[in-house]
Write a structure and sequence with these properties.
It is a single chain. This protein has helices at 10-19, 21-28, 58-67, 100-107, 114-120, 125-140, 214-226, 278-286, 307-325; strands at 32-37, 40-45, 51-53, 55-57, 79-83, 89-94, 110-111, 153-154, 161-162, 169-170, 175-183, 187-192, 204-207, 231-241, 247-255, 272-277. The chain is an alpha+beta fold. It has two domains: 5-143 and 150-161, Alpha-Beta Complex (Nucleoside Triphosphate Pyrophosphohydrolase); 175-326, Nucleoside Triphosphate Pyrophosphohydrolase. The strands form three sheets. Strands 1, 2, 3, 4, 5, 6 and 7 form a seven-stranded mixed sheet that branches. Strands 11, 12, 13, 14, 15 and 16 form a six-stranded mixed sheet that branches. Helix 1 crosses helix 2 and helix 8 crosses helix 9 (307-325). The radius of gyration is 23 Å and the shape is globular. It starts with 9 loop residues before the first helix and ends with a helix. It binds NADPH dihydro-nicotinamide-adenine-dinucleotide phosphate (NDP) and magnesium ion. Residues 172-303 form the Nudix hydrolase domain.
Length: 329
């Protein structure tokens, strides 16, 4: 089978590459590579001034590696990410031990911190950039077995690491987090942590404790952080979130009784939490993406690549609909 041809069933194809070292090594010969320098992805500016993730073909990457004094077999250190629409296997490669500016020059691109890259990349490319970084980070921090202290060995695709001494297999992990937009019917509750950028408020969130369901985490986190009791939980969607380590965000809507809205903030967790009106929210959603050269606005919400933004947008749409139904503007 020629693995480079467009593949009808991508999922089966990727499963094979994940599990079969030989097939994956073969796929590396005709892969598409995303480079990271100390976990910062390589971006390129197109002729129309738009930034995209730079993707290099195997032959181009090997050529560049040789030019910067690195063995071309270094491509084998890559990790499998997925497949392009054309069926080309995609890989991420950490090149942090190579001179950064020499690489940037050879690749005609620049390595950009992932948080900054999220603001520069077109929407659909952000999750791929995040996945590439997350996988590299996981491998960098799981080189040893936590039971024996012996080195763990990766398979070719990077879908797991194994300790041959204990026989334990380690798989890349995400920590589940519940994020919830609480509404009292006409307002929604947003909060900020001291570490948030100035003026940014987001939905409430918290890591799931061992053994908890999504609903249990949601009730506990809202009670802990703002002292409220929620009901009517509705699932909205999910997202992988790479910061600071890989989280798996499960996003929900919930409501509180309109006569029990007094917030009691846990100051150890939150700097502030307050109710926002529909007008305040729609104005914040209309604001253009943050310009790092300008002062941040007094109140703004997470940008569109964050699932918090999706929750806030959905809430605003719902409010708009019910206002129309009630003859309000
Ligand atoms: N994509 C999005 O739209 C959004 C994503 N998020 C993400 O959600 C995550 C959780 O939100 P946050 O409100 O801070 O969570 P929590 O409310 O649970 O508060 C963080 C606390 O959990 C501890 N902690 C850190 N990692 C873990 C873990 N893996 N398991 C259990 N506890 C942990 C922290 O300890 P320590 O003192 O060590 O830090 C800190 O005390 C963050 O990574 C944040 O970036 C949040 C909002 C929006
Ligand atoms: Mg929290």
């Amino acid at each position: 089978m020629n693995l480079t041809k467009p593949v009808k069933n991508m999922s089966r194809y990727l499963k094979r590459l994940k599990e079969d070292d030989e097939a994956c090594r073969e796929a590396l010969k005709s892969g598409i590579f995303l480079l990271y320098h100390k976990l910062s992805p390589l971006l390129r500016e197109t002729s129309s001034g738009i930034y995209t993730l730079a993707s290099l073909k195997t032959s181009d990457l090997e050529h560049i590696l040789e030019k910067v004094g690195k063995d071309k077999h270094f491509v084998n250190e890559s990790f499998l990410l997925g497949c392009t629409d054309k069926g080309e296997p995609q890989f991420s490669l950490e090149v942090g031990d190579i001179d950064r500016s020499a690489l940037e020059q050879e690749c005609r691109g620049m390595f950009v911190d992932l948080r900054k890259a999220f603001f520069m990349l077109p929407g659909p490319e952000s999750p791929l950039a995040a996945k590439g970084q997350a996988l590299l980070r996981w491998h960098q921090t799981n080189c040893f077995c936590s039971a024996t202290g012996q080195p763990t060995i990766r398979n070719q695709s990077g879908s797991f690491r194994v300790c041959h001494s204990s026989g334990i297999t380690y798989y890349p992990k995400m920590a589940p987090v519940v994020i919830v937009l609480v509404s009292d019917g006409s307002r929604c509750l947003l909060a900020r942590q001291t570490m948030f950028p100035l003026g940014m408020y987001s939905a409430l969130s918290g890591f799931c404790d061992m053994g908890e369901s999504v609903e249990e985490t949601l009730h506990r986190e809202v009670a802990e952080e703002v002292g409220l009791e929620v009901k009517n939980i509705q699932y909205s969607g999910s997202q992988h979130w790479p910061f600071p380590q890989s989280s798996f965000m499960l996003a929900c809507h919930a409501t509180v009784n309109p006569d029990k809205t007094q917030v009691n903030i846990d100051k150890a967790e939150l700097e502030d939490a307050r109710w926002f009106t529909y007008e305040e929210i729609t104005e914040a959603l209309r604001k253009p993406p943050l310009d790092p050269r300008r002062e941040p606005p007094v109140f703004w919400v997470p940008p569109s690549y964050a699932i918090a933004n999706q929750l806030i947008q959905e809430w605003a749409n719902q409010q708009q609909l019910s206002r129309k139904l009630h003859g309000l503007k």
